[in-house]
Model the fold of this input.
Amino acid sequence: GLVQKCQPIVDALNKIKTPTSHTALFSPRGVTYNEGKAKEYAKMDHLILVCGHYEGIDERVNDYVDELLSIGDYVLTGGEIPAMAVIDSVVRLLEGAISSDSLVDESFNEPILEYPQYTEPYDFNGSKVPDILYSGNHEAINKWRRKQALLLTRKHRPDLFEKLPLSKQDKKLLEEAKSSEIPDWELKAIEKGHKYIK
Done:
């Protein structure tokens, strides 16, 4: 396959680089991209992403970039899609791009997946929105959401779960989950909010 020449890439970099530029080249050798890296990039003044194509890029281009970056262990036809993914994940962190409230409870803010989300209708083909979410008890709802996030992370992303520092309450919630019984705090919240439950 074709290998991209170093001269045009280096010329382009020299044309656009500034003293505050940071240059990342997509490569399977690179550090794996994650939310932490997105936050790091969002604080930078000038980010340059170098996208390979075809068989790859002349090895000597590596000497002109600040880091190598990978978005995962698979092969794409070029670096354009990885660049779009990085740009989207960084831009959303910039002030004014989206509401700051939207950035609070999200997967990967800490090493945990987000809790399940629901909308109307209450009953869809026999699958119902959990009653606790209609209770009106925000403290109990937050507790339920934390428990679900812990359980989902442990089940689907054990690699993240291993890194998660568990609080006393987290451990208690996980212990509760071993039983099929609904815990008292959840039953009480549902009972008090029964008028909101459909």
Observations:
- Helices lie at 6-16, 35-42, 80-91, 138-156, 158-163, 168-176, 184-192.
- The radius of gyration is 23 Å.
- The CA atoms of residues 21 and 46 lie 5 Å apart.
